[in-house]
Structures are given as structure tokens and as C-alpha cells.
UniProtKB/TrEMBL annotation:
It is a multi-pass membrane protein. This is Peptide/nickel transport system permease protein. Pfam families: BPD_transp_1 (PF00528), OppC_N (PF12911). The chain crosses the membrane at residues 21-43, 168-194, 201-223, 229-248, 279-301, 337-359. Keywords: Cell membrane, Membrane, Transmembrane, Transmembrane helix, Transport. Belongs to the binding-protein-dependent transport system permease family.
Length: 367
């Protein structure tokens, strides 16, 4: 029996590998997840929440390049290993400039301006830098920054915000699916196995939750728990267990009459052991498929909440929040500010739906 179980898994894996779209989508999600995990390593701006910007260079187009004067802030805290995961403190203030010149112990510079004719000339004393000589200042504190995806409305690096924002979207999917699986599998299995009043009560609860629009229910739970990062995760997870519970209940109803369940009862095993060690492992195929779809749904729900101002709060970046901040630029000639996070979200949702379809075909015993 064990050999048949292994061969069935191998057969499902082979069928999944033959689905090129499913494999491509899985690779895309893995690469995106690794990029989000190492966002502060890959991001040009590796400060906490990629929040280091200057309004003078706001809403610049992709590929924008500017010279900057980087002034140390005196923060001498050492960089730890955790900073590569959580982001570093802002240790330098940068000033975008058009040109500069040294005169004695003074550094004169022209501030960056879209219209050079309106640029103002300002100065800095060279003693604000650790090195006093011109050559060292030029080498260590006057640099050229390139913004591959341009800057947002606060002058922050848009690529960095996009990478860090991917964490929120992927995390909301994982946490919401995890919560929905725990609640959905437990209630669905209890309803299908025990039947009677237990089944009637759980079905009533499912129908009540199902009758409330998902976004409205999430908003209500979010308002009850309060605005915040983890509150959104919990709120989304508490609204996505219903479909899992319905599917699990139906599967348990058909499986609990099987011979191996009858044999387990005859051996005197407890009901909970029969449910969680014998029945549930044999009905996980459709649950896995639903989880992939729920992952995509959770990302869309979180983006809707962020757009309404109820999701991840400023300055934490999220794709929904980035769309909210920049949707008005669509009609102001800079649509990329809203379209880039929207396209990223679309690709992730499509990838999870493709994975779900590939898993459905691979786990179909009739195929």
C-alpha cells in the first residue's frame, strides 16, 4: 500500500512537470519570494521601509540619474546581520544637486530642480564631513544615484519600495491561507464526520459568513481589531476559511464510509485520531488547489484594504498602498507610478491561479 502511495505522488509530480505554465508560475513565485525575503539586500535603498527620499526628485521617470551630496548624520550604530532582513537605519542625508564647486573650506552646490533656471545656490562647510580635503569628499560623499524605476511622490526609490512591498503581499497570502486552513479543515472535518446538530450548526455558521461580502467583513474585522500590519493578516484569514470548510465537509462525508475508516473504528481509535490521522491526509488534494486560489484572493483583498487606507500603514510599503498614493498620476502623465505595482500584483495573482490549475490537473485521479 505504501508503494502505491509513493507512485501516486510521483505520477502527480510528473503530470505537474508536464504543465509548462504551472512550472513557470512556480519558479516565478519562488524567485519573487526569495527576492522579497532578501529585499534589503537587493534594493538600492536598504533603509527601513526604503523610506529615504527627497521631495525635490519626486515622481521622476524610470532610469532617472542624479548627483547627490551625502552628509553623515553621526549615527555610528554598527550594522548587524538582522539589518539585512529588517533594513538599516538612515545614516546619511542626501541632497540632490545639479553641480558643485569648492572654494576654500566651503562646498557650493546648485540644488536639483526640474527647471535648472530656478535652481538655488547653497553651501556647506567641509567640516560636516569626516574628511576635510576635497578629493576625499568627492570620492566618498559625492555620488551618482540611478533610479531604475524612477521615484515616487516622496522622492523615494520606487524599485526598493516595490521589492519591500512584495513582502506584505506574499506574507498576507501565507498567513491568511494558514489561518483559513486551520479553521476550515477543523470545522469542515467536524461537520462532515459527526453530522447531526454539529453539522447543522457549522453549516449555519458557514452560510452566515458566506452571505456577507468578503471586503465588508474584512473591513469590519479590521476596524474591530484596529489598523495595523498583523491585524490585516488576521482579518483576511478569518474570512477565507468558509470555502475550505465546505470542501472538507463534502470530502469527509464521502470518505468516512470507506473501509479503512471502519477498520480504524473497530480498532478502537478515537474520533479525533481517525479524523486528523486517517481522513484528512487522504482528502488534501482539493484543499491544496483551493489554497492556491485563496492565496491569490488574499493578495487582492489586502490591496483593496490598503487602497482604502485600512491595510499596512505608512511608512510600510505595500502594493495596494502604492497604487493608492499614485492613482491620480495616471491622468497627470506619469501612469507608471500606479501601473507598476498593479502589474506586479496581476502577475502574482495569475501565477497562483496557474499553479492552482496545474495542481488540479496533477492531482486528478481520473486524469
Amino acid at each position: 500500500m505504501f508503494k502505491k502511495f509513493v507512485s501516486a505522488n510521483k505520477k502527480a509530480l510528473q503530470k505537474f512537470k508536464r504543465n509548462s505554465w504551472g512550472v513557470f508560475s512556480l519558479v516565478f513565485i519562488v524567485v519573487l519570494s526569495l527576492s522579497a525575503l532578501g529585499a534589503y539586500i537587493l534594493a538600492p535603498d536598504n533603509t527601513v521601509n526604503a523610506n529615504n527620499g527627497d521631495v525635490s526628485i519626486s515622481t521622476q521617470k524610470p532610469g532617472f540619474t542624479v548627483k547627490t551630496i551625502n552628509i553623515p548624520l553621526g549615527n555610528k550604530n554598527k550594522t548587524s546581520v538582522f539589518d539585512y532582513f529588517t533594513g538599516k537605519e538612515i545614516k546619511e542625508q542626501f541632497i540632490p544637486i545639479l553641480s558643485y564647486t569648492f572654494k576654500g573650506d566651503t562646498l557650493y552646490y546648485n540644488e536639483f530642480s526640474v527647471d535648472p533656471s530656478t535652481s538655488q545656490t547653497k553651501y556647506l562647510l567641509t567640516n560636516v564631513f569626516p574628511e576635510a580635503d576635497e578629493k576625499s569628499i568627492e570620492e566618498n560623499h559625492i555620488k551618482t544615484k540611478k533610479y531604475l524605476l524612477g521615484t515616487d511622490n516622496q522622492g523615494r526609490d520606487y524599485l526598493s519600495r516595490l521589492l519591500v512591498g512584495a513582502r506584505v503581499s506574499l506574507a498576507i497570502g501565507f498567513v491568511a491561507v494558514f489561518i483559513s486552513l486551520i479553521i476550515g479543515i477543523t470545522l469542515g472535518a467536524l461537520a462532515g464526520y459527526f453530522g447531526g446538530k454539529t453539522d447543522a450548526f457549522i453549516l449555519w455558521l458557514i452560510n452566515v459568513i458566506w452571505s456577507i461580502p468578503t471586503l465588508l467583513l474584512v473591513i469590519a474585522i479590521t476596524l474591530a481589531l484596529g489598523k495595523g500590519f498583523w491585524q490585516v493578516f488576521i482579518a483576511v484569514g478569518l474570512t477565507m476559511w468558509v470555502e475550505v470548510a465546505r470542501v472538507v465537509r463534502g470530502q469527509v462525508l464521502s470518505v468516512k464510509q470507506m473501509q479503512y475508516v471502519t477498520a480504524a473504528r473497530a480498532l478502537g481509535f478515537s474520533d479525533l485520531r481517525i479524523i486528523f490521522k486517517h481522513i484528512i491526509p487522504n482528502i488534501m488534494a482539493p484543499v491544496i488547489v483551493i489554497s492556491a486560489a485563496n492565496f491569490a484572493s488574499a493578495i487582492l483583498v489586502e490591496s483593496g484594504l490598503s487602497f482604502l487606507g485600512l491595510g499596512a500603514q505608512v511608512p510600510v510599503p505595500s502594493w495596494g498602498g502604492m497604487i493608492k498614493e499614485h492613482y491620480n498620476y495616471i491622468i497627470l502623465g506619469k501612469p507608471h507610478l500606479a501601473l507598476i505595482p498593479g502589474l506586479a500584483m496581476c502577475l502574482v495573482v495569475v501565477a497562483f491561479m496557474m499553479i492552482g490549475n496545474a495542481l488540479r490537473d496533477a492531482l486528478d485521479v481520473k486524469g
